[in-house]
């Protein structure tokens, strides 16, 4: 159990007070409903070539309304992906409509602006959550993949299919996206459906060679792990879902994918400037964005390359090797740099997207929308970068440098075996290891135990720093409420947390509690209620 990270159920979240993220997310859903309503008015007036777009607008309104009921769509992952997917597909379908500068198309532009405003507010929610740690550090649950897939689909509509560069970039996107989506079979299934819609609904722009490549690659992704699973190789099956049996490759692919998307955005603006000279306003805006982009990205890339070369991503991720204090301080400094980078680039991206939105309102053009979509997709990976920086921060702490305390009151062979295995586990993964011999006995008094735990929480390293993780292991008698039975009294969770708050709560350390006794689930329920 981690006493510093409360685990709230969905019902308890509904009872909690509204936070800033809840308010921003509610505003984003209002934007979604407004945009869908405008689309409903547009399509009901008979100004769309395809009548099923009317159903798309109605479907979006229903999803947004149910999202308000749930308040936090991230609790319901599939529902959140449906909402995000609807935003991406709505933007995609709307890009097909005629671009003549009349009243109805201006209305359509307003509708797109509302959808994008809602999506930007959703991105702000994800950014705040990633920095504050209110969501899981797993970026797959924080990044709106549905919108990205919808935007990726829109590339086929808004770009001239005769361009060889666009074909190559699109194929490259497909390859990298499939490699990343192998982490989740459900995401691969969604990608499969998106590909089917792209190639069968939009048959006029179908590329036979790309169709064969896509389905061949997806079939290969599905067939090989299924065959391995059928032949009993379940371990390899699980490793295969973690990207080609190489866990560290997953993180490298993210950054490679992100850099390629940056290049893709730059090339899209170059194509827009070359093929459409009337968009002369894109020139200064593009040069400003490109200059700022390179200034921000250059030290970031150097930092990542240095980090990969010096420490190795696998050791940083798994923390299987002890890291000295100087190395840990250097890595924490890198993490702070990544957070500062994410903050600056996020707001710079917002300003650039607003400028692109202004240009799309003044000069309504398909290519302007294409650059608009391209930059929108980069926003998603900015959020992934911020979330990965938090993942890096969490992996640097915890099991790298820590203390461990064992409270064992029943000395038998089984407990000795468990204790020895825990000792071996921590000795391999921690620089400093502490074990109080006085506590490995029966008939402990509460005052003595409180003194030992207080002194345990105030221990510091040889360099004068405080430990970033404190581990307690207890095995002994408990009452029906999960409290520890001592000689003269019981030791409750409140007693332990009081010692924790009085000593090291301000040092951002983690408290790990492992209870190997009866009624241990009672403490787990109490930890989930902690705010």
Automatic annotation (TrEMBL):
This is Transmembrane protein 168. It is a multi-pass membrane protein. Belongs to the TMEM168 family. The chain crosses the membrane at residues 24-45, 52-70, 143-166, 173-197, 209-231, 252-274, 286-308, 338-358, 364-384. The lineage of its organism: Eukaryota, Metazoa, Ecdysozoa, Nematoda, Enoplea. Keywords: Glycoprotein, Membrane, Nucleus, Transmembrane, Transmembrane helix. It is found in: Nucleus membrane. It comes from the Eukaryota. One of its GO terms (cellular component) is nuclear membrane.
């Amino acid at each position: 159990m981690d006493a510093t990270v409360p685990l709230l159920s969905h019902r308890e979240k509904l009872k909690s007070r509204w936070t800033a993220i809840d308010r921003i997310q509610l505003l984003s859903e209002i934007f979604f409903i407004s945009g869908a309503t405008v689309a409903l008015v547009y399509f009901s007036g008979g100004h769309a070539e395809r009548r099923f777009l009317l159903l798309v607008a109605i479907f979006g309104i229903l999803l947004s309304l149910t999202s308000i009921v749930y308040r936090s769509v991230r609790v319901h992952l599939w529902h959140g992906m449906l909402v995000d997917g609807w935003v991406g597909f709505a933007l995609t379908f709307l890009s097909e409509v005629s671009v003549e500068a009349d009243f109805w198309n201006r209305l359509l532009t307003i509708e797109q602006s509302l959808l994008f405003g809602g999506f930007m507010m959703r991105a702000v929610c994800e950014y705040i959550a990633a920095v504050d740690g209110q969501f899981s550090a797993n970026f797959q649950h924080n990044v709106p993949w549905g919108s990205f897939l919808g935007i990726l689909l829109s590339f086929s509509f808004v770009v001239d299919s005769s361009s060889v560069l666009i074909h190559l970039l699109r194929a490259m996107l497909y390859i990298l996206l499939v490699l990343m989506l192998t982490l989740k079979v459900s995401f691969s299934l969604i990608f499969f459906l998106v590909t089917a819609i792209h190639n069968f609904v939009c048959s006029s722009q179908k590329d036979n060679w790309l169709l064969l490549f896509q389905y061949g690659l997806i079939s290969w992704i599905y067939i090989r792990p299924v065959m391995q699973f059928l032949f009993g190789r379940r371990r390899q099956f699980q490793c295969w879902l973690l990207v080609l049996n190489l866990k560290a490759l997953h993180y490298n692919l993210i950054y490679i994918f992100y850099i390629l998307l940056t290049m893709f955005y730059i090339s899209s603006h170059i194509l827009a400037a070359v093929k459409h000279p009337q968009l002369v306003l894109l020139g200064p805006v593009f040069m400003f964005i490109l200059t700022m982009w390179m200034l921000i990205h250059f030290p970031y890339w150097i930092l990542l390359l240095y980090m990969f070369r010096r420490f190795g991503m696998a050791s940083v991720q798994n923390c299987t090797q002890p890291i000295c204090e100087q190395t840990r301080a250097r890595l924490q400094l890198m993490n702070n740099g990544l957070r500062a980078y994410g903050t600056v680039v996020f707001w710079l991206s917002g300003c650039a997207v607003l400028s692109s939105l202004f240009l799309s309102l003044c000069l309504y053009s398909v290519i302007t929308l294409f650059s608009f979509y391209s930059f929108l997709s980069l926003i998603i990976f900015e959020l992934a970068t911020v979330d990965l920086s938090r993942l890096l921060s969490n992996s640097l702490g915890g099991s790298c440098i820590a203390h461990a305390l064992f409270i064992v009151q029943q000395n038998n062979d089984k407990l000795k075996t468990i204790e020895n295995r825990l000792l071996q586990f921590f000795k391999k993964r921690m620089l400093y290891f502490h074990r109080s011999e006085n506590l490995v006995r029966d008939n402990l008094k509460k005052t003595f135990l409180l003194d030992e735990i207080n002194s345990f929480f105030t221990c510091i390293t040889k360099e004068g720093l405080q430990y970033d993780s404190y581990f307690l292991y207890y095995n002994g008698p408990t009452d029906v409420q999960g409290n520890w039975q001592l000689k003269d009294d019981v030791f409750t969770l409140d007693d332990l947390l009081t010692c924790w708050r009085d000593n090291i709560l301000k040092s951002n350390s983690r408290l790990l509690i492992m209870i190997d006794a009866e009624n241990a689930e009672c403490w787990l329920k109490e930890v989930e209620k902690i705010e």
